[in-house]
Amino acid sequence: MPEAKASQGLARLGQAGRYFAQGLRLMVGLPDYGGYLEHMQRTHPDQEPMSYEAFFRERQQARYGGRAGKCC
Question: InterPro entries from the xrefs (predicted)?
Fold first, then answer.
């Protein structure tokens, strides 16, 4: 039984690491394309997911609003 508990502990640690990495990516503004693909497969299997390039542009648009750069 100790092997099963160790395996469960490693699985939890791996999941925590994935959540931590995702949080870091979101903090620095990197969109999570893998999460988007999983969401599309799970909830919209009949729709074609965006390419990475289209996804990245859409996320930039959502974050920065497509405004021209302004100083100060």
Answer: Sel_put
pLDDT tens over the chain, length 72 residues: 677 777 888 889 888 888 888 787 777 767 788 889 999 999 999 999 999 999 989 988 888 886 655 555
Contact between 40 and 49 (Cβ < 8 Å): yes
Whole-model pTM above 0.90? no
Distance CA 29, CA 14 (A): 23
CA of 69: how far to CAs of 12, 19, 32, 35, 65, in Å? 43, 32, 24, 29, 10
